[in-house]
Amino acid sequence: MSSTAAPPPSANASPAPGRSLSAWWQATPLTVVFALFFLIPLALILMVSFWDFNEYELLPGFTFKNYISVFDGCSNMADMCTTLRTYLSTFKFCLLVWLITLVIGFAVSYFLAFHVRSSGVQTLLFVLCTIPFWTSNVIRMISWVPLLGRNGLVNQTLMEMHLVDAPVEWLLFSDFSVTLAFVHLYTMFMIVPIFNSMMRIDRSLLEAANDSGASGWQTLWNVIVPLSRTGIIIGSIFVITIVMGDFVTIGVMGGQQIASIGKIIQVQTSYLQFPLAAANAVILLAIVLMIIYGLTRLVDIRKEL
Amino acid sequence: MSDSLPESIDASTAANVKRRSLLKGTAGILAAGVFPAIHAQEKIVLRYLGTAVNQDKAIAEKFKADTGIEIQYVAVTTDDVTKRVVTAPNSFDLVDTEYFSLKKIVPTGNLKGIDTKRIKNADKITTLFTTGEIGGKKVGDQGTAPKKVIYLEGEKSKVFAKSPTQFMSLIPTVYNADTLGIRPDLIKRPIDSWAELLNPEFKGKAAILNIPSIGIMDAAMVVEAKGLYKYPDKGNMTKKEIDLTIKTLIEAKKAGQFRALWKDFNESVNLMSSGEVVIQSMWSPAVTAVRTKGIACNFQPLKEGYRAWAAGFGLPTTLSGKKLDGAYEFINWFLDGWAGAYLNRQGYYSAVLETAKAKMEAYEWAYWMEGKPATQDIKSPNGDVLAKTGQVRDGGSYEARMGGIACWNAVMDENNYMVQKWNEFVAA
């Protein structure tokens, strides 16, 4: 993520104006922070992932054992191995959450950017969107439990309206509740960048489309969507990276029964199997980086920003 | 000299310049080491690492009132306690952990053997820990029974001693025997076997502990109760036995048996009190917590027996000087009765029964320890009514309950494999 957000080195633009010594100095603080808190720890994780371990200590060395054990049994096609199964379930949530947050995020941003005329109301509504973020993640999640539970508000209402005879069980501790919580928690990460890029769209383009006789849908599809692409991609990167690494939401809302790669890593670290956890983390990182690489192929973020 | 210090500080608030020069002077005296009176009064703060369950505010407050030493609680999960002791032994002054974790901790050399000569009530610690007996009768010792890991060969030893020595790895604090918790109002029939946990009758309404090393023991109790297999030692399974146990769990999970898995005390309380779950493996104080909400919940004695656990205080190797003395003072205070009585009233058992008994009312002792019907309402330490007059404690007397231990929480030799298989169960 950081690589995509890094300032443009402007390789294809005009020759950099001030690539002098002072520019390097200015970049130093960030470089140091970046190296200290990101690159070095990452290198350590990579190193540890090749170490051996026993119950209570790490044994420096070089072994592929951890990686082999991550993919243990994955050659057996009949019964999928834990790792593949876990990734599959994580991908499923990723895709679902991405789609839903994208649709909602786009709609909300569209409304805020094009339908709300006064900038005061715009700001007010935007702040309104952030209200759920005034409490902690976990509290926002847990507040769903009494609502969706077997004896929760939703089930009580359904029963009283005689729509169902017995409480609906799939509302809580299910794929549904996990997806719901994710959407609730992370739609904001879609709204902000999409809204941001929509606000940069030159309004005269819309008028031009209108004057040329484009219908509302045509304007939306041929003008607004392409011009909001940067926001969409940035929002997607946020949502996908969060969902790929999450273990808290899946744990709480899935009743701890749904596997996630983050959860496996967490269990392994709590049993002092750091090398195994590191191997898993390296694989997860590689996969997330590949997804991000794929997404950035779709849009030249450097140019768009 | 020490008397003059508070005065001088008072005066200094009026005149800032004066304060500075005074502080300088004090610092100089301190540096010269000629200020012993102040040093002796230095406030001791003990960082107490453990799970939230055992870290009671009232205990810390009472201890501070009695001795002036402050307890600072560092609350993490069972697994994280071990992780902290192994990876960051300088981040605490006293650890409250379970005996089964010792197999991972002691070989690192991060724990100091506790000198029983400095523990006043050391010889009164219940025989359950020292010899594995209750009332002269042997109890089950499958798994990591405390008697196997309680003694160290020396103060700095990394191996367990086979017979009693002067040095203990942990001084026992609380222990109990766990079983299934049920909602009698929602089940409406007697439950008497661990096998009921996987009974399809409770499909979608059962839960199991998602702490692999404990959860697998509960699963093993179920496997034996269903007559699928008899383990030579449930607390130390072979790979084949682990496969069998996890397979049973996976089959049940795929059939939709479990509503949720729980990892933390509060989760289990919430699952039970909200009625999401009607039967689950549970901890005794969690049952108490459900009951204090006015919801019926039984800590159900089962014919196959209990899965026991025990926790105790350990000291990090690096602890020395005043803090070490403070830690010993805390341990001595803890075994001296007040804390023991407090814990007994929560449904735990205390390590030194004699001193706890002295601090409990006769009717309380009869209810909690002797399994007799309550002659008046039984209240928790914070005043909630736990049992009405005439009720009897689940599981009966101390001897009946702790005598019925089938196995102890354990760390297996095949622990890594077990965790890997457990992840498979969660992913299934």
From TrEMBL, chain A:
Example GO biological process: transmembrane transport
CDD domains named among the record's database cross-references: TM_PBP2
Keyword Transmembrane helix in record: yes
Subcellular location: Cell membrane
GO CC terms, sorted: plasma membrane
Major localization listed first in the record, in broad terms: membrane
Membrane topology classification: Multi-pass membrane protein
TM regions (residue ranges): 29-51, 90-112, 124-145, 170-195, 232-254, 274-295
Keywords attached to this entry: Cell membrane, Membrane, Transmembrane, Transmembrane helix, Transport
Domain of life: Bacteria
Residues of the ABC transmembrane type-1 domain: 87-295
Family (UniProt): Belongs to the binding-protein-dependent transport system permease family. CysTW subfamily.
Full protein name: ABC transporter permease
Species this chain originates from: Rhodoferax koreensis
High-level lineage: Bacteria, Pseudomonadati, Pseudomonadota, Betaproteobacteria, Burkholderiales
TrEMBL record, chain B:
InterPro entries attached to this UniProt entry: SBP, TAT_signal
Domain of life: Bacteria
Signal peptide: none
Keyword terms: Signal
PANTHER family the record matches: SPERMIDINE/PUTRESCINE-BINDING PERIPLASMIC PROTEIN, SPERMIDINE_PUTRESCINE-BINDING PERIPLASMIC PROTEIN
Name of the featured protein: ABC transporter substrate-binding protein
